[in-house]
Amino acid sequence: MDSSTVQPSWNLVTDLQLLFQYHFMHNAFLAGTIVAVVAGVVGYYMVLRAQAFAGHALAHVGFAGATGALLLGVSPIVGLLAVGLGAAMGIGALEERQGSARLGGGVAVAGVFTFGLGLGLLFLQLYSGQAENAYAILFGAVLGINDSDVVTIMVTAIVTLVLLAAIARPLLFASLDPDVAQARGVPVRALSIGFLVLLAFAVAEAVQVVGTLLIFALLVTPAAIAQHLTARPSRAIGLSVLFALLFTWSGLVVAYFGPYNVVGFYVTTFAFGTYLLVLLVKTVRHSLVGRTHPIREEAAA
Amino acid sequence: MSGLPQLLPVATFSLNPFTDLSDMLSNDFMRYAFMAGTAMALLGGLVGYFVVLRHLAFAGEALSHVAFAAALGSVLLGFDLLLGMFVITAGVALGMGTLADRARNRDVAVGTVLAWVLGLGALFLSIYTSSASAGSNGQIGVNVLFGSILGVQLQQAQEAVAIGIGATLLLLVISRPLLFATLDPSVATARGVPVKLLGVVFLVIVAVTVTEAVQVVGALLVLSLLVMPAAVAQRLTARPFVALFLSAALGVLFTLAGLTIGYYEPYPVSFLITTLAFGTYVGTLVWQQVRERWKHRASHRAQALEA
User: Fold this and answer.
1) Is the Cα torsion angle A4, A6, A8, A14 positive or negative in sign?
2) CA-to-CA distance for A222 and A37, rounded, in angstroms?
3) CA distance B268 to A153
4) A57 near A112, Cβ under 8 Å?
5) Count of CB atoms within 10 A of residue A190's CB?
6) What is the residue extent of each domain of chain A?
7) For residues A267 and A214, is the Cβ–Cβ distance under 8 A?
8) Which residue does chain B place closest to A210, by CA atoms?
9) The listed CATH number (1.10.3470.10, 3.40.50.2300, 3.40.50.12780, 1.10.10.10) that belongs to domain A10-300
10) What is the pLDDT of residues B55-94, one digit of tens each?
11) What is the nearest CA distance from B243 to chain A, expressed in angstroms?
12) A242 CA to chain B: closest CA distance, Å?
């Protein structure tokens, strides 16, 4: 599709009509919106639990899932979910054997995901050896999502959000202070593996939109920005979702009207730009506040 | 256009190891692959030991992604692929090394940069594959992502060996103070060891290693040679320098075994190397647990007999 020929006018209504004149854009927006909401919420917990590397690994393992599904002739999301589930369990089990996650230095995570990617390469080779298939999975193909994909994404999203809502409070407790939570009888380990599984679900969905490699733009960055802006969990989750939506929508719009229809690039660029901006504003404000209130700074130090 | 790393015509395997070896090494591409692979695996194993010790697995991963974007960017702009990759990755490593202390939540900062760099890579890839005339262009992205060890030319193999030896020597020279600075940074600082400088120099060595590894296993699988051999070695021995060299030996072993199997069986070499590495890691974990349980049981039995 040659979307680079579409010229935006300054009339918002006609622009919106232009944007939604094709069915593939309806699906892209629908899927993008659902994924952004899930990624925003799950991402908040991921950042809170310092499991960014695990999320990254689950996304990479998803490559094996998607290519395996191609090989078996089933829908990619089925493969993504299955492999994500397996990898989440595997990381949980290996980390436990390895000792604590900190001691292991992310070794268990690294092992699982390099193996998963290698497997994905093998599947792809056995399937066709076409580079295009690899690129679609790695960098996303949101403009190629069909109706049944949207339904699958919707169903998994609802399941993920309901499950997360069910464990939200104990998970927050276990994430913020695992020792106290354990002492209070909160099943910290079960929650940890349960969350990894939910993370795998979220990743499986997000892969459809931004691809296995660019998932971080939706999973980490919005949550990281939200955490910089507020300390209250409920507000941070809301902000995280809001930013994820914003990045996805603007990425889709710019890719539609702009010169290159690489949605993933625009989404990651908006996310990264906003992150830098927030950091900059915070630093500037901090130094301004520090200058006007020297006493406060001394007290803090 | 077909695009994945090419497979070899399946060679038949005789039971005489000498004929097999000479048959395999009679091919130029296998000789070059062995040269580049050994140099890289040696360096990766040594560097990986410190990467694991310093908890830099995620940073190494991020650098490999930077290498991916840098490779495609340099191809797009017409620079030398290896040189462009090396310069940009080392530059980012320098930046990371100097900024790392300031970042409160390092993982998040690394992850955010990583996502954007990959997005940039996706853009370059899209521009490159759509602008250049059709042909083998689709190949380059996959080569960078998943490695192209069997396509290494003589000059690249020589470069890989030279860079590998240089970086290995540098690492060995700084290895003792680096070990000190890694295990106990505050005492090392008090003793006058330049901890911060060592950290930055080490990250640049990681960047060099990553650029090398991209050629062998590809940007996505770098950690299989950077982290996995070291992880296995650390489980097998607690003595730092034994672990360091064991890690290098394991890395070389995985690479050579992966290449040899890849020569006889129709599987991608990167897949074989990652599988060997991961298999060994899981095998070590399981074996150690079984042994521990055995010891436990044996001591129980001894106690029962005494009583």
Assistant:
1) negative
2) 11
3) 32
4) yes
5) 13
6) 10-300
7) yes
8) B119
9) 1.10.3470.10
10) 888 888 888 888 888 888 888 888 777 788 888 888 888 8
11) 15
12) 17
Question: What one-letter code names the amino acid at A4?
Answer: S
Give, in degrees to the nearest 5, the angle at Cα B71 between B68 and B74. 145
CB pairs under 8 A between A and B: 196
Tokens of A153: 């994404």
Q: Do A110 and B227 touch (CB under 8 A)?
A: yes
In single-letter form, the type of residue at position A49 comes to R
Q: Note the helical H segments in B100-221.
A: 106-131, 137-146, 154-183, 185-190, 195-216
- At B156-205, the pLDDT tens digits run 888 888 888 999 999 999 999 999 988 888 888 888 888 888 888 898 89
Put simply, the answer to whether A52 touches B58 (Cβ < 8 Å) is yes
Give the mean pLDDT of chain A: 80
Q: Give the whole-angstrom CA distance, residue A15 versus residue A256.
A: 11
CATH fold of B17-306, please?
A: ABC transporter involved in vitamin B12 uptake, BtuC (1.10.3470)
Please give the Cα distance from A199 to A160 (Å, whole number): 9
Q: What is the ipTM of this complex?
A: 0.76
> Taking the model in full, what pTM does it have?
0.78
Mean pLDDT of A169-176: 86
